[in-house]
Specification:
- With about 575 residues, this protein is α/β, with parallel strands linked by helices.
- It is built from 13 helices and 25 strands.
- The chain has an 8-stranded mixed sheet with strand order 3-16-11-4-5-6-17-25, sandwiched between helices.
- The relative contact order is 0.09.
- The N terminus is likely disordered.
């Protein structure tokens, strides 16, 4: 038997088997049953009826050492305090008092607190290690000042999402040009409004003919300037001649007039790993699909796809539409809308394992600029983007027409008549989904602006003042008015007395028709029109003062109430079957 069992056998309190040795100052295990104190050499026996035990044993056999008090017996329920069993027992007053035991509740609390504290420490260490692990997953590129350097919570955000055709990763070697340096194959400008009520995701066709500006890139040998090119495919803004994502950002700014804050770049693996992490993305096809090139094979109807199937879906050019890149863009937009819905669903947000998988996949798949190249910064950005309701996220495509310089149509050019109003809507945070409040304000302003007759452009007289704070704004506007719009009776009056935030047009009652014409040409909001009380003289000009909202000659000051007819739109909260 162990010590605990032996104690119970002779009705001895197990807690009393450890006693203090006054000679050593240490507690020692006491296995004897006698409570008498004897000299080391004096044997002692129990009274009648009890087993006799000697008190002179060696320490190695667990014996009592001289001067160490004997063990106490537990009292029987009927024994009076201070009495023993069979005489010879010293009075209770001479015995060592037992230390009160802590209650079970207190012991449980102490144990629970210790475990909880340990768990918190362990979790903190694990979380930190995982945080550092995720940070180490992120790939970054220093874009040499191409972005804004950050984003503010009270300002609009512009993110350039770039999907490259680089064949990195297992299983991707057989897709298309395996030697591709990674061109801008799929590019989306994601604009989030200042108030986070809406967002516009505009795809830019890879076969768009455009001008690529000079751009700085940082290499291991230092910073170098890569010369720009004129009238080349947009997708060569990345990967060609050592161009990095910063070159693509500069190119998009030249096209749209919007300053890009940051970029996010992903390759083929991103589609496979992200869709797998969230358990698949639901897509819908209007017909059976069997594309030998992309290896996409689906029956008519809805499907949950991930991994290789998801990649095949966004890559296919021969399954839908007229097999052009423009139709593939529509398919990709439908896919991304479904992916956004899945990521924001309770199925994903309430699953710790999916969120962990998503964090792992996203940090491994994405390359970003150094401005958002950490978990903390990506988390801040993500929290801002997440504020937008999917029903107010609209996918669209840069309006284009076939390249008139080609006999065999292979490339496209910007459709200026439709693109400029679209750019203005994005610059002014006007939603393509027409958020109710904005729609109402825009309609009221447009109705006031359009009411009444218009003069001919050649009849408009106006003096132009620069209160925008932008050097040369008045002269550029004058050149545009005279050369492009036929407003010949216009003059540059140089700088205004002081800068103003909003552009204004001051006119007399008898100049109202001229004011409406100029407002049409410049895209002025009704609030910019300031009508006086007295009529003007025959040759007296109106006064146009450019304000801080001036974005460039020919760029509308105010955005239109809605997108021009024919601009393609896909709303993120609606599922569309690919045809």
């Amino acid at each position: 038997m162990d010590a605990h069992s032996r104690g119970r056998a002779d009705d001895i309190d197990p807690a009393d088997q450890w006693v203090l040795n006054p000679q050593t100052g240490n507690y020692e295990l006491r296995l004897e049953h006698s409570t008498e104190q004897s000299a080391p050499s004096a044997p002692s026996t129990r009274p009648t009826g009890r087993r006799a035990t000697t008190t002179s044993r060696t320490a190695t056999t667990g014996s009592r050492t001289a001067g160490v008090p004997g063990q106490r017996r537990r009292r029987t329920s009927g024994a009076p305090e201070g009495s023993g069993h069979g005489g010879g027992t010293p009075p209770a007053a001479g015995r060592r008092k037992r230390k009160p035991q802590k209650s079970r509740k207190k012991k449980a609390l102490m144990w629970t607190s210790g475990v909880t504290a340990g768990m918190v420490v362990a979790l903190a260490i694990t979380a930190y290690a995982y945080y550092e692990h995720l940070n180490s997953n992120i790939s970054t590129v220093d874009i040499a000042g191409a972005g804004s350097g950050g984003f503010k919570k009270d300002q609009a955000i512009n993110i350039l999402v770039i999907g490259t055709d680089k064949r990195t990763g297992d299983g991707n070697e057989g897709y298309g040009d395996k030697n591709s340096a990674g061109h801008a194959d799929t590019t989306i400008l994601f604009h989030v409004s200042k108030d986070r009520t809406n967002a516009t995701a505009m795809s830019i066709p890879r076969d768009l003919m455009t001008d690529i500006p000079d751009c700085e890139t940082k290499t291991s040998e230092g910073t170098k300037v890569i010369p720009g090119e004129q009238n080349v495919r947009f997708n060569t803004s990345l990967g060609q001649a050592d161009r990095d994502p910063g070159c693509t950002m500069r190119t998009v700014k030249e096209i749209t007039g919007l300053t890009i804050d940051h970029f996010m770049m992903a390759d083929f693996n991103a589609v496979k790993t992200l869709t797998t992490a969230i358990g698949g993305v639901e897509v819908c096809v209007a017909k059976d699909v069997d594309d030998k090139q992309s290896k996409l094979k689906l029956t008519k109807g809805k499907h949950m796809i991930q991994g290789e199937d998801a990649l095949a879906f966004v890559r296919t050019r021969h399954a839908f539409g007229n097999e052009s890149d423009l139709d593939r863009i529509k398919t990709q937009q439908q896919f991304l809308g479904s992916m956004i819905r899945k990521m924001k669903s309770s199925e994903t947000l309430t699953s710790p394992s999916k969120l962990m998988d998503l964090a792992e996949a996203a940090t491994q798949a994405l390359t970003v600029d150094t401005g958002i190249g950490s978990i903390n910064k990506l988390q801040d950005l993500g929290s801002e983007l997440a504020k937008v309701n999917p029903k107010n996220i609209t996918f669209t495509t840069l309006p284009v027409v076939d390249n008139p310089a080609e006999t065999v149509k292979a490339t496209v050019v910007v459709d200026e008549a439709k693109a400029r109003p679209l750019f203005s809507m994005m610059q002014n945070d006007v939603s393509l989904t027409e958020v109710k409040e904005k729609q109402k304000d825009a309609k009221n302003a447009q109705a006031a602006l359009l009411k009444g007759a218009r003069a001919q452009a050649s009849e408009v007289r106006v003096d132009v003042y620069n209160g925008s704070g932008k050097t040369g704004a008045a002269q550029r506007t004058l050149d545009w008015l005279q050369n492009d719009e036929g407003v010949f009776k216009s003059s540059n009056k140089s700088n205004a007395p002081h800068d103003i935030p909003k552009t204004t047009l001051e006119f007399a009652p008898n100049q109202a028709d001229q004011a409406r014409k100029l407002a049409d040409l410049m895209g002025l909001p009704a609030t910019a029109l300031k009508q006086g009380t007295a009529d003007a003289g025959e040759r007296e000009p109106m006064k146009l003062t450019l304000g801080g909202d001036f974005k460039g000659a020919g760029v509308p000051i105010a955005a239109p109430a809605k997108a021009p007819e024919g601009v393609q739109k896909v709303e993120a909260d609606k599922q569309v079957c690919a045809e």
